[in-house]
Amino acid sequence: MSTPAELRAAMVDGFAGDDAIGDPAWRAAALAVPRELFGGSFFAPVPGSDPTAYRPVHRTDPRWLEQVYADETLITQLDGHVRPEDVTEGAVTGTPSSSSTLPSLVLSMWQQLGVEAGHRVLEVGTGTGYSTALGAHRLGDGNLTSIEYDPLVAECAAAAIRAAGFAPRLIVGDGLLGDPDGGEYDRLIATCAVRYLPPGWLHQVKPGGAILVTLSGWGFGFGLVRLVVTAPGEGTGRFLPGCTSFMIARPHDRPPRQSISLLPGEERPTRIDPEIIATWTGSWVAQLAAPSAERMGVGGHQILSDVATGSQARTAPHPAGGWTVVQRGPLRLWDQVEDAVEAWQRAGEPHQEGFGLTVSATGQRVWIGSEDGPGWNLPI
Ligand SMILES: C[S@@+](CC[C@H](N)C(=O)[O-])C[C@H]1O[C@@H](n2cnc3c(N)ncnc32)[C@H](O)[C@@H]1O
After folding, report:
1. Mean pLDDT within 50-74
2. Cβ atoms of 12 and 56 closer than 8 Å
3. Ligand 1 within 6 A of 149 CB?
4. Residue 307's pLDDT band (cuts 50, 70, 90)
5. Can you tell me the mean pLDDT for 253-276?
6. For residue 76, what is the DSSP state?
7. In testing the pocket of ligand 1, which one of 247, 252, 253, 254 has its CB within 8 Å of the most ligand atoms?
8. pLDDT in tens, 238-262
9. Are the beta carbons of 324 and 333 closer than 8 angstroms?
10. Is 38 helix (H, G, I), strand (E, B) or coil?
């Protein structure tokens, strides 16, 4: 049976050849931080379940330690309150609301952030505290502040971070509001996703400093962006390669709704295959175009629903070929999506890394190619 140190070394060896985590200083951090202190009990997805069911894995499970070092995300909370300890029998369904992000992603994000000795960093989303401990190892306790929204999650993280021998500054609160004491940060890293950049972040990070965050929304599209602050409240940057997703920051989550009833509306043929908005970049484009809409459905049956206005769009395959869309309400959600998908197709269907973001006094705009390319305003 391998020891934690052996499993840790094997995990870091497994990252060899991955340039995204080639920095020896971050590898040293991964070798030094015992992930088993941050894992505790967690939820493992039940293979083949739909919707995904989760079964609790506890320290007493013979494969617990091996799973802790499997370079997987360890889900530690569902639906904002359900912990593995709460599940006494069988498996449960729910939406992950806290986790220890998979180590290779944490390390590559820390590396992409581009920190240097002496930098002051603000982390939003302490979670289990694993990424915080890595950051504290690299930067020194005094240079790192981490904010967690959920008080119980924050309490567990604080204990784990202490047990691992680190003492960064920890805050319980809404990280979207930034450091409550204000701050002059060189870098900000978020391990929860946001619908738009919280304006305060671009004031708390100094001009020349950088923010690394995943943009997301209610359409399940994701894009990891590295934004350089150009002036107080302003910044620009490009989205990065890869397929990074994070749970959305709690204040940016979709509004609660009753189960959806599909109502009549105006019907027409669609110009695009609806399934495209269920692909990695298609969902991203659709979300940019209709940011107030929640997306549901599978395959050619896509549903967009805007709770605030009651606007709906739903597509279906047509028996004679092609697809139709039924739209109702003040927002023509499908028209918005179709125009955006066609603009993206004309631009050559780039992956998220072909997009950029500019934040200015007048708003936040995601664009394709360059600032004067096709673009969409974020719902700030
Ligand atoms: C993916 S987990 C963080 C993973 C963590 N960095 C780690 O390595 O263990 C995301 C965390 O963000 C927290 N969160 C969500 N909204 C937040 C907010 N507005 N401010 C601070 N934390 C938030 C969640 O409670 C959750 O614990």
Report:
1. 95
2. no
3. yes
4. confident
5. 90
6. E
7. 247
8. 999 999 999 999 999 998 877 778 8
9. no
10. helix
Q: Please name the residue whose Cα sits nearest to atom 4 of ligand 1.
A: 127
CATH topology of domain 103-251: Rossmann fold (3.40.50)
Q: What is the mean pLDDT of residues 308-328?
A: 95
* Ligand 1: residue whose CA is nearest its atom 13: 125
Q: What confidence tier does 27 reach under pLDDT thresholds 50, 70, 90?
A: very high
What residues contact 332, with CB distance under 8 A and at least 6 apart?
Answer: 311, 313
> What secondary structure does DSSP assign to 133-192, as a single string?
HHHHHHH-GGGEEEEES-HHHHHHHHHHHHHTT---EEEES-GGG--TT---EEEEEESS
Distance between CA atoms of residues 170 and 167, nearest Å: 8
How many residues are given for the chain? Answer: 380
Residue 190 has which token pair? Answer: 């978020």
Cα Rg of the chain (Å, integer): 22
pLDDT value at 121 more than 90: yes
Confidence (pLDDT) at 61? 94
**Taking a C-beta distance cutoff of 8 angstroms, is the pair 74, 63 a contact?**
no
For the record, the structure tokens of 232 come out as 């107080």
